[in-house]
């Protein structure tokens, strides 16, 4: 088991328990939580775990802030969407789209990385922000190709659609294509997750951490810091693109709002920071918590806003549209007071 | 130790004359502007169109410069990169436009004095609010994370979101449309071309600000300390100046300038949204990067380049306008990876 985790277990009993619960819940989601909404949430968690973990590769392990992660995510998603639109429904289209999106993301990451990381790591944050916003604008303006603001709706292989039904019930649940689709998403996410865990615990991952702690010293020891940083950027972009492809396969719809928007970028940042920067487990925990909060807490806010309607400012503050306000506050507080996130806290407690 | 009283030593130091090539390399960034303008003229062809585009490009550039100047100085002084700078642009615009709306009698009157008075009142209110906000921002958010770029970026992004959302809470979720004061509407005939009056005003304001800022930086003691602080902060502190205080002052001034830029940009676009600051931040970052982090002159040239290029390209090939800035940034970084006029640091 520990070998599967590349020697980097949860290292805290409470954390291990939480993660086991999350893992089991995701593995048996279609049977434990029947209903369309629960399945949507579970798939979203799987995909965002991969996305957040791939971002953590950059933010937590290499110490670089990027604002272009949704761009890579979007490239993967648009790859599948475009391929499925032009090549017709089929598994070939999915494969070609995924590979094309992956290649585009890695190539773009390489170019951005070479341009900005060569001189000053701090350029990277600004340049990624600029490039990502340009890409978002392009995606919504070039409506002939990308469908503009409306996005693209396309068909995926029948076997993965909700219309396909097997004549068999397992634990009282009819197996549909949607459930098969969920298990495709789940299995690929799990493999990608373990692969990332493998990468960060390899010698390569150790060098990344050394660079994060002290880049000058890493350079002095003889590691080519720029090369490692650029490689990490490309890897992270590649994983993000794969997550994007999964997202496109699951949703059967791709648009700027669901893949490229700055809000998703913030979600990813928050997932990684809350879960714990510099631990892949933290990304998994953070993503799960955030997606759950988003799916269910916003309803609570609507209730709270309704209850406080008489108070003018308070009801506006609690409006579900002001969700981002509270995320921002939470974000600042967690950067200050929990720089190591939930996982860091739990591990520190277990080590005591 | 003997005291030399015979006057100056015998040797005469001579400065090696710069070769023409070195001279050109030194002034190349300054030459880019006229070159770009001439290329634009050649491609556009007609004088009035070119002039109209140039003036609007310059106006846009000046406004971006007003917003960017504070950011670049703050970075130069304390190595602080403030991703929340854009929030001050939005807040400035909303405060300023609210004041203008309150002074409806002044803006509606066909009197230049009253119109300018109303705009001035709006600008002063906006700058006061954003300056105060900047002070609080520095104290609460930035101060605990000095020297840690990663956390700085994260915390200031958080600040940007919170302030932007608070604008939604205070002013409501919708964009606000506005009309410019009576005398600033319409066009002026200028050297044979019709130019929007407001754009001319923006160019003038921007130029005055740049000259004033240069004077302060070059001719006053505080400017000397700021410039010295950018080059070698530790030395300035060792000489007994409280650089922290200078830094807070610069931060507040930069935030106030961002607020001013917000009002100007709001009047230029005639619509304001809470997200406008975030959108402008993209241009501001491009400008600051191509100018060279920490360099005010670089930011000035960079802002004008961005403004001109965007207007020319929007006319010549509208589809390309979206990526023209990224193209410019790529080109400049290939030419000078540190930006056009990088600040030479004594380290």
Polypeptide structure, described:
The complex is a heterodimer of chains A (352) and B (347). Chain A is mainly alpha-helical and 352 residues long. Chain A has a domain of 244 residues. Chain A is built from 17 helices and four strands. In chain A, helix 3 packs antiparallel against helix 11 and helix 9 crosses helix 10. The longest helix of chain A has 28 residues. Chain B is mainly alpha-helical. Chain B has one domain. Chain B is 73% helix and 3% strand. Chain B is built from 13 helices and four strands. In chain B, the strands form two sheets. In chain B, strands 1-4 form a two-stranded antiparallel sheet. A two-stranded antiparallel sheet of chain B has the order 2-3. In chain B, helix 1 packs parallel to helix 12 and helix 7 crosses helix 8. The two termini of chain B are 32 Å apart. Chains A and B meet through helix 6, helix 13, helix 15 and helix 16 of A and helix 6, helix 11 and helix 13 of B. Chain B: InterPro entries: ABC_transp_permease (IPR001851), BCAA_transport_permease (IPR052157). Chain B: It is a multi-pass membrane protein. Chain B: Keywords: Amino-acid transport, Cell membrane, Membrane, Transmembrane, Transmembrane helix, Transport. Chain B: This is Amino acid/amide ABC transporter membrane protein 1 (HAAT family). Chain B: Belongs to the binding-protein-dependent transport system permease family. LivHM subfamily.
């Amino acid at each position: 088991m520990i070998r599967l985790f590349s020697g980097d277990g949860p290292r805290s009993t409470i954390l291990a328990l939480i993660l086991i619960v999350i893992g089991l819940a995701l593995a048996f989601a279609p049977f434990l939580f029947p209903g369309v909404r629960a399945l949507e949430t579970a798939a979203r968690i799987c995909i965002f775990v991969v996305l957040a973990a791939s971002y953590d590769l950059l933010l937590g392990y290499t110490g670089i802030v990027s604002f272009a992660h949704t761009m890579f995510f979007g490239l993967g998603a648009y790859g599948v969407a475009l391929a499925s639109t032009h090549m017709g429904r089929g598994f070939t289209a999915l494969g070609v789209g995924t590979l094309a999106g992956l290649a585009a993301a890695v190539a773009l990451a390489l170019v951005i990385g070479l341009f900005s990381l060569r001189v000053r790591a701090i350029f990277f944050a600004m340049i990624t922000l600029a490039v990502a916003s340009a890409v978002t604008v392009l995606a919504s303006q070039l409506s002939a190709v990308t469908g503009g603001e409306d996005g693209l709706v396309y068909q995926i292989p029948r076997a993965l659609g909700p219309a396909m039904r097997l004549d068999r019930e397992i634990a009282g649940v009819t197996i549909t294509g949607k459930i098969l689709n969920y298990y495709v998403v789940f299995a690929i996410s799990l493999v990608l997750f373990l692969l990332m865990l493998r990468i960060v615990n390899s010698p390569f991952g150790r060098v990344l951490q050394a660079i994060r702690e002290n880049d000058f010293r890493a350079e002095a020891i003889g590691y080519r810091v720029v090369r490692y940083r650029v490689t990490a950027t490309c890897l992270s972009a590649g994983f993000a693109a794969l997550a994007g492809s999964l997202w496109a396969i699951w949703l059967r719809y791709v648009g700027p709002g669901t893949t490229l928007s700055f809000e998703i970028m913030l979600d990813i940042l928050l997932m990684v920071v809350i879960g714990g920067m510099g631990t892949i487990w933290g990304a998994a925990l953070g993503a799960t918590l955030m997606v759950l909060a988003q799916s269910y807490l916003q309803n609570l806010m609507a209730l709270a806003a309704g209850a406080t309607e008489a108070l003018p400012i308070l009801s506006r503050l609690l409006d579900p549209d002001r969700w981002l306000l509270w995320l921002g506050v939470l974000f600042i507080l967690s950067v200050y007071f929990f720089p190591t996130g939930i996982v860091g806290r739990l591990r520190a407690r277990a080590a005591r | 130790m003997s005291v030399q009283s015979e006057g100056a030593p015998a040797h005469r130091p001579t400065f090696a004359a710069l070769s023409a090539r070195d001279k050109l390399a030194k002034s190349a960034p300054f030459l880019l502007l006229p070159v770009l303008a001439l290329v634009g003229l050649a491609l556009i062809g007609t004088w009035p169109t070119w002039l109209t585009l140039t003036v609007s490009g310059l106006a846009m550039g000046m406004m971006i410069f007003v917003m960017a100047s504070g950011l670049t100085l703050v970075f130069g002084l304390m190595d602080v990169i403030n991703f929340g700078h854009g929030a001050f642009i939005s807040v400035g615009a909303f405060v300023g436009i609210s004041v203008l709306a309150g002074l409806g009698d002044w803006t509606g009157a066909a009197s230049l004095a009253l119109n300018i008075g109303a705009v001035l009142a709006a600008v002063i209110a906006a700058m006061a609010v954003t300056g105060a906000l900047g002070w609080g921002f520095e104290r609460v958010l930035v101060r605990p994370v000095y020297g840690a770029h990663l956390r700085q970026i994260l915390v200031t992004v958080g600040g940007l979101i919170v302030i932007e959302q608070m604008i939604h809470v205070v002013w409501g979720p919708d964009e606000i449309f506005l009309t410019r004061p009576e005398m600033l509407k319409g066009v002026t005939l200028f050297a044979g071309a019709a130019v929007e009056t407001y754009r001319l005003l923006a160019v003038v304001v921007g130029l005055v600000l740049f000259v004033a800022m240069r004077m302060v930086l070059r001719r006053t003691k505080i400017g000397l300390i700021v410039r010295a602080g950018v080059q070698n902060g530790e030395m300035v502190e060792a000489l007994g100046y409280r650089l922290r205080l200078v830094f807070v002052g610069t931060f507040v001034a930069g935030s106030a300038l961002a607020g001013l830029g917000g009002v100007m940009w709001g009047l230029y676009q005639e619509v304001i949204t809470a997200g406008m600051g975030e959108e402008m931040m993209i241009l501001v970052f491009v400008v600051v990067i191509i100018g060279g982090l920490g360099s005010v002159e670089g930011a000035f040239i960079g802002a004008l380049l961005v403004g001109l290029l965007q207007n020319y390209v929007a006319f010549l090939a509208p589809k390309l306008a979206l990526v023209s800035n990224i193209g410019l940034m790529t080109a400049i970084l290939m030419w000078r990876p540190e930006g056009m006029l990088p600040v030479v640091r004594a380290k």
